[in-house]
Amino acid sequence: MAAKRIGITGGIGAGKSAVTAYLRGRGFSVIDADEVQREATRPGEIAMLQLAEEIGDDIFLEDGELNRPMLADLMFSEPDVLYVVNLILHGDIRARMEKKIAACEGAVFLSVPLLFESGGRWGCEMVWLVTADDEIRLARAMARDGADEEAVRARMAAQMPEEEKRALADVVIENDGTPEELYARIETELNLHNLL
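Above: the chain sequence. Below: its structure as tokens.
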């Protein structure tokens, strides 16, 4: 029987990692798109070879690692580059995730930061949105990334507004309180949706 897919998404600083860490601790399968992306972008991986062929070797550092800031700049300034990266890299990430999902049984949680922005639900039967007050998200992201307020606010502004995400989500997990309150909310949802 195919695994039941539950998406987890949310903006910067919302607390997706806290939710997925808790779920892993409870024994659930969690497939994290960011972790899969790191696998897909290692030197020598097929998507990296394809990007080198399509965009050029300039997007790599001397040690073969992807020059992420340079590629991000190119993607923002050149629509053709954005299209190629989406086609090659996102296709590879999606294929890797599908392979991991196929190996799972029961409920599998897919942590995809830009789930709604990527144009769909990734086959998820249910999507959980992790959210928090903007000022709390700002403080968390600044503390976690060591970034300044302006940079974090710019990233927040570039993401889909929280109201739109709330309208698309099946479950909204407010993460404005203590870790214990968050865990209690997760347990409530696990029980409510017969996932235990």
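The chain has one domain: 4-189.
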